[in-house]
Model the fold of this input.
Amino acid sequence: MARRVESNDRRGERRPKRTSTAYRQRMRRLGIVLLMLLGPACAAPTPDNAAVERHYAEHRSTVEVTAEGVVTSVLADESGPSGTHQRFIIRLAGATQTVLVDNNVTIGQRAPVATQDDVIVHGEYIWNDQGGLIHFTHHDPAPAHEGGWIQVHGVRYQ
Done:
């Protein structure tokens, strides 16, 4: 059955217009296909600790990572030219490697972490001989860099 929709004709007068059922079904199918194709691209990254371990072994830096682990130490904040940074160390889940998380709280939100908290961290990995560090764990106000985040107790801090 066709649905009646009003539209303007060339003289600006309102007149009924019919849209076919077949057209609506094609558009609905197209929408479903687009959701199926684009949905995974919009999903949050999943933790990949093996990638972090690989980057460490290969001395790679400036790569986007998502890591999951347990907070082993909460360190004092550190101030620098780009602002105040919240710092804590996580041990990667299923591994012995530890990583320093360096979260700029001048730009982003402070994550309320404590020792033994399970966290997921998304940001930029930088290699060092102590296991590396993850920074850019906040949104990027310039939008020149992919935004990062810290998830603790089911809440995401950007």
